[in-house]
């Protein structure tokens, strides 16, 4: 299946109750061959109307933050954990996430990014497979079987709580370090790079424990 075929297959999806209140399925947008993917929570009012993730105020902030680390929306791919708008922008419920999750995982598999940046609790818990608060894991890398996961605060949270703006910017600065390392991976023949590599490997190993699925 191609990414476009997956998108078309969801056009009239009725698998969960979110289908009843949506204007349209908001599948995702961006470069289908992206190395970097961002995953948010679910469509809001404007996203539901326009059929594109992150087009409202949170989207504007995300675009600014991306540009601050040298990324454009055209080179990345952006999707959400649930692809239909929850009524009144409420949180997606556990069964809705569980029902929609296979489509996100298939989307990630088809895009095959090196790095997936999860924005906020729902995306992070879904992709980490653990019910853990975003504040405990933000700004760190986690090695998943097919990609590296990098959780960040959700831009909408920073719009609602002004005190989260600085931590959100800090997350993006840490993301810049990760991107720089992706562009210039450590040279194992260099002893100081090797020490850093070993430290990263032990951290990654620690980060993937425990493996149990305990989402909600
Ligand atoms: S949220 Fe996902 S599972 Fe539910 S109707 Fe929309 S596409 Fe289907």
Task: Give keywords.
about 220 residues, alpha/beta, six-stranded mixed sheet, about 45% helix, about 10% strand, disordered C terminus, binds iron/sulfur cluster
Describe this structure in words.
With 216 residues, the protein is an alpha/beta fold. It has a single domain, classed as Uracil-DNA Glycosylase, subunit E. It has nine helices and six strands; from the N terminus they run αββααβαβααββααα. It has a six-stranded mixed sheet, with helices on both faces. The protein is globular, with a radius of gyration of 17 Å. It binds iron/sulfur cluster (SF4). The site of iron/sulfur cluster (SF4) has 14 residues, from α4. Iron/sulfur cluster binds next to α4.
How do the helices and strands line up, and which of them pair or pack?
Layout: H1 3-9, E1 29-30, E2 36-40, H2 45-50, H3 57-68, E3 77-80, H4 94-111, E4 115-119, H5 120-128, H6 134-137, E5 142-143, E6 148-152, H7 155-160, H8 165-183, H9 191-207
Parallel strand pairs: 2-3, 2-4, 4-6
Antiparallel strand pairs: 1-3, 5-6
The chain binds iron/sulfur cluster.
Largest sheet: 6 strands, mixed
Anisotropy-based shape: globular
Q: Could you state the CATH homologous superfamily?
A: Uracil-DNA glycosylase-like domain
**Could you list the spans in which at least 5 consecutive residues all have pLDDT below 50?**
204-216
| Percentage of β-strand residues | 5-15%
Derived structural class: alpha/beta
What is the string of helix and strand elements? HEEHHEHEHHEEHHH
CATH topology: Uracil-DNA Glycosylase, subunit E
Terminal CA distance reads 30 Å
**What is the mean pLDDT?**
90
Strand order across the largest sheet: 1-3-2-4-6-5
Number of separate domains: 1
